Amino acid sequence: MADIIQQLEETTTWIKKQYPHTPFVGVVLGSGLGNFAGEIKVEKEIPYTDIPNFPVSTVEGHSGKLIFGELSGRKIVAMAGRFHFYEGYTPEQVTFPIRLMKYLGIQILILSNAAGGVNTAFKVGDLMLIKDHISLAIVNPLLGKNNTELGPRFPDMSEPYSKELQKKVKNIAASLQIPMQEGVYFGVTGPTFETRAEYKMIHILGGDAVGMSTVQEVIVAVHMGLPVVAISIITDLGIREEDNVITHEEVLEAAAAAEPRLSAIFKQLVAEL
Ligand code: HPA
Q1: Cα-flanking dihedrals φ and ψ of residue 216, to 5°?
Q2: What is the pLDDT of residues 100-132, one digit of tens each?
């Protein structure tokens, strides 16, 4: 396999031929959040299947695409669909698009995801601004030989989510009168949802929400010095007295219902960057 830097350079050159502008911000749209793409004045769409060195999708009909265009007067690149570790991709494959967006020139990364709530004050449909994460239950994407062209061997993780961007999001949410929870995102590999005992453990360990994406992406972004802001939609509740069966359908439904609020915040955030 070719060296990661070589792959990134090759893919960047290829994309620049299709779309010569430099996006200022990159956005990753999580499960059930694809509609946000409708807010973008689209200039170019490239299916993942066309992009050299991109992982090949394991899910039929869900290959996803990169969307280039303008939002709130800013050049943007959005990933409609992300790659998850539970799908069988390596951490390097999962994070390739994040590294690529940095190579394309983005200066800020905005992430969204669906997550299970383990903070007992949370309700289904809440938005949670991620202020920190716990990565112990995932595979760190920086394991192995470090590539100093991308970043340092031992990246500092004291502020993985930009405090300045968090402040902006909180102000925007308040001005739009959109309630915003804050908390710690606990990363897991999935694909099983958690057992009752696991949700409880995550709560005890300091998680407010748990999810199967985002953390590996954030780690490579921090490695490259890319500021990150991330919001979870709480799609289900892990800690409940009553029956607690969780389905993928209900996760998608709750995410779609909350999407207009998330979109409004992202749109305003991009305007204020
Ligand atoms: N657990 C893990 N990942 C999730 C959940 C959950 O409860 N909900 C949405 N993604």
Answers
A1: -65, -35
A2: 999 999 999 999 999 999 999 999 999 999 999
* 145: amino acid identity, one letter: K
Gap between the Cα atoms of 113 and 127, Å rounded: 10
Ligand 1 contact, 211 CB (< 6 A): yes
Q: How far is the CA of 190 from the centre of ligand 1 (A)?
A: 8
pLDDT of residue 242: 76
- Among candidate residues 26, 82, 24, 28, the one with its CA nearest the CA of residue 57: 82
Neighbouring C-beta atoms of residue 17, cutoff 10 Å: 8
**Joined tokens for residue 84:** 């998850």
Whether the model clears a pTM of 0.90, i.e. scores above it, the answer is yes
Q: 196-244: per-residue pLDDT in tens? A: 999 999 999 999 999 999 999 999 999 999 999 999 999 999 988 777 7
Among candidates 165, 214, 208, which has minimal Cα distance to 188? 214
Question: Residue whose CA is closest, atom 10 of ligand 1?
Answer: 115
Instruction: Please answer whether residues 207 and 185 qualify as being in contact, where contact means their C-beta atoms are separated by less than 8 angstroms.
Output: yes
- Domain total of the chain: 1
Which residue has 């995932």 as its token pair?
A: 138
Which residue's structure tokens are 């620049």? 16
- CATH code of the domain containing 56: 3.40.50.1580
Residue numbers of the domain that contains 237: 4-272
Beta-ladder partners of 117: 209, 237
The confidence band for 60, taking pLDDT boundaries of 50, 70 and 90, is low
Is the Cα dihedral 175, 177, 182, 188 positive or negative?
Answer: negative
Residue nearest ligand 1's atom 9 by CA: 115
Regarding the beta carbon of 233 and ligand 1, being less than 6 Å apart is answered no
81: left (phi over 0), alpha (psi -120 to 50) or beta: left
